Amino acid sequence: MADDDEREIELTSLVERNDLTGIRLWLAEHQPYEIADELSRMDVHLALVPFRLLDKDRELEVFEELDPHHQHQILLGLRDSAFRALLEEMDPDDRARLIGEAPAKIATRALAGLSPAERKMTAALLGYPEGAVGRYMTPETVILHRDLTVGRALEVVRAKGADAETVYTLPVVDDGRRLAGTVQLSDLVVSDDSELIKDIVDVLVPRVRATEPAEDAARLMQQANLVALPVVDSEERFVGLLTFDDALELIEAADTEDIARQSGASPVSGHYVAAGVVRLARARSVWLLLLIVAATLTVNVMQVYEATLEQVTALALFVPMLTGTGGNVGSQSATAIVRALAVGEVRLRDLPKVAWKESRVGVLLGLMLASVALVVGTALVGPLIAAVVAVSVIAICTWAAVIGSTMPILARRVGVDPAVVSAPLVSTLVDATGLLIYFSIARLVLGI
Amino acid sequence: MADDDEREIELTSLVERNDLTGIRLWLAEHQPYEIADELSRMDVHLALVPFRLLDKDRELEVFEELDPHHQHQILLGLRDSAFRALLEEMDPDDRARLIGEAPAKIATRALAGLSPAERKMTAALLGYPEGAVGRYMTPETVILHRDLTVGRALEVVRAKGADAETVYTLPVVDDGRRLAGTVQLSDLVVSDDSELIKDIVDVLVPRVRATEPAEDAARLMQQANLVALPVVDSEERFVGLLTFDDALELIEAADTEDIARQSGASPVSGHYVAAGVVRLARARSVWLLLLIVAATLTVNVMQVYEATLEQVTALALFVPMLTGTGGNVGSQSATAIVRALAVGEVRLRDLPKVAWKESRVGVLLGLMLASVALVVGTALVGPLIAAVVAVSVIAICTWAAVIGSTMPILARRVGVDPAVVSAPLVSTLVDATGLLIYFSIARLVLGI
């Protein structure tokens, strides 16, 4: 932490003082990812100053570390020649993602400036749907034929390895370019030169279709401990490799997105510190609007029971406690299930199992929390209303756990991202229904 | 999904029918990670049946894929010879984590059964604090001296590579075993045999101390695109490598933990489907108890204003809507900042910047939501109370955004995990304070 802070103060203040010698020195002393991290925190007009001072090689490395939002901003600040040179040198998968997410005017200019070979490669990747593995894989690999010897294969790696993004996992194909499996470079290195690739190829290695979701592929790599995952087309032909660094990034991005959704916000691309107030507010506004409209239901429920409230004002005292507790229990269940779905622990057919389990969890939690409510209620308003509150707590907790746990599974079943079943959504639903439960119990017990 | 479901139905039913031939066939057709995934979903007494049918090599691979909770359960079901053989063969880092998290009786039995060499290696890793890189790194690497030639280095890799967990990143050391940097196996393969290691070593590669938090190291690997990260002791001597597969696992586990905390629950280790009702309830109960006790504050606030409520019952109608909205806005801010802290986008010194930004986001959201409240309120109870509600919405949203965003940063400043500033905690705090705001505005405007 301390190091980070010093680093930041330094570069920002150097840029603000326009101390070009100081900036050059700072840049020489830091790694591309550190430079990218600092640039992401600065306003773009400031970030362009150090960016332009980078030498060509590092410029590319730093640029590839930036997120798409910052990449677009930087590109807009570059002259045409620099713009073209940068894009031409990028890895095809990084470039495809940049262009795929860019505003139309940047995308057109970017594609037009590319050499025919690079343009073809980029267009192929852009042909895959957004979020698909095809957008994230690298087509630049060293492919081995299954009939090669290990010695010959190593020569191929030596000759072509420099142009590939990775040579640790080597796809092995048959005559029709169909994927037979993969060999690891480490296996080549420790094998005898005369051995045949087809005798050491791992044919059981997992593979994915280029059209499958990239997040699922990344989680598969984590489960299967793969440094690279081979990607095939619909006819089992090899088309590229998803590498571990993209997998790490995919998992972090997917988790960031799920976490934002879980709080009822759209994910904001780019660095928090660099995000504008209006952009942050917009990302959070949609759900808040929907939820406050949904919350008018609670006003209606309260209105229905206004007469009851006028008779027994004490009932009103416990409304925030009950809605709060119900919301908390429901959010916990929803959060647990959304995560379990994301990492593949819970599947669609687990719905009845999950509902039954969570209902019992809800009863247990309800019993525990009801005892607190009973003590507090008795002390403040007497045993009768306290009993009403306690019974309501049990009922609301059970109901909240069931609703919170089943809604994400139902969402996935109808093809919606389970993460939209956010904590606020569950709380709001449980608020209105919880009040109905509370007042019904109150009227029953108090006989009004 | 469909595939997963078929797979599961098959193995579970094979085990339940005790169809040993069928189970053997199923095991032969699946990868270790798939087998581990299925075992994780089953009760341990059932999971032991297929586990015992695995041949020795795959038994180890499957076992290493299980989470510690399941590993402990499986170990308890094994005979002593099988127990020892399994532990002896494990990777030292996986074994250290298993023992570190095991109940005392398993840990003692496990350490006692190891060969002296393996016991020494495990003890060294267990010497590092829980959660530190030292617990997750592998000490089994191929170390190169900086004075070697590339040709000689490749011979070393060939000779010792089979025993190492990874040979893709090769640590380079000087005479005192101090880390000079790393070379990539891919660089060795494409370099001339006569070149010297010291001329191609990457000296700028990031390195971490073995005592640093493993999660930070994993995120550094993601940022710097490293397949393995060298780990050093306090004297800069090389002690091990953190590999990408452990980094992927660390990031996923850290995110799972943060997500659970964010909903006010302790993380539950192991598979959701296999977790018992009592264990789930216990993980969620601590915060719920604290929060319902804190929520008695809302009862107190309501009681203070009971006379006001008796005079104007209509005020009570909007209580759930106001507490709900405040909770939602506060949770969104807290979630955004906890995540930004976790991935390193926000730092301690950003506190004033964040508070100022979030207060403006809160005002914007408040204005938007107040307009809805004004319309709904006017329709249901007339313009005067509607105005009170609308003004309260603006004040509560601003307050909630500031509280939600600053509390996680303050938590980290005092050394507490920011993720404990959960959505439920923020909601509960905002409930009580929001009610104070609401009733104060009401008494001011209505003159009561």
TrEMBL record, chains A, B:
The organism's place on the tree of life at top rank: Bacteria
GO molecular function, one term: metal ion binding
SMART domains associated with the record: CBS (SM00116), MgtE_N (SM00924)
Membrane topology: Multi-pass membrane protein
Principal localisation: membrane
Assembly and interaction partners: Homodimer.
Protein's name according to its UniProt entry: Magnesium transporter MgtE
Gene source species: Streptomonospora mangrovi
Gene name per UniProt: mgtE
